[in-house]
Amino acid sequence: MSDKPVSLLIPPEGYADWLGDLKTRIHAAQQRATLAVNRELVLLYWQIGRDILARQAEQGWGAKVIDRLAQDLRRAFPDMKGFSRANLMYMRAFAECFRQPKMRPV
């Protein structure tokens, strides 16, 4: 027989329903947080691409600036992935295809 008090072995009335409700709310909050993070990252990537396009057009910067930018961003954010030269080119292409993003609120 267990040394635990009986009150810990048998949950009070309504406990299972309450626990189920808490689990549902926790999962919903996790999903909303994930959507919010994804939305912000997509917007950030679009903004980076837009900035690259603008600087190349306005200041005549060539493709080599993307190589340098990739190195500098990876050095500044070593724990973050996604700042390779290829990804920066994807961001540039993304901004070129979508001149103004239409983001819905989360």
From TrEMBL:
<dbReference type="InterPro" id="IPR041527">
    <property type="entry name" value="YhcG_N"/>
</dbReference>
<feature type="domain" description="YhcG N-terminal">
    <location>
        <begin position="21"/>
        <end position="102"/>
    </location>
</feature>
<protein>
    <recommendedName>
        <fullName>YhcG N-terminal domain-containing protein</fullName>
    </recommendedName>
</protein>
<dbReference type="InterPro" id="IPR053148">
    <property type="entry name" value="PD-DEXK-like_domain"/>
</dbReference>
<dbReference type="Pfam" id="PF17761">
    <property type="entry name" value="DUF1016_N"/>
</dbReference>
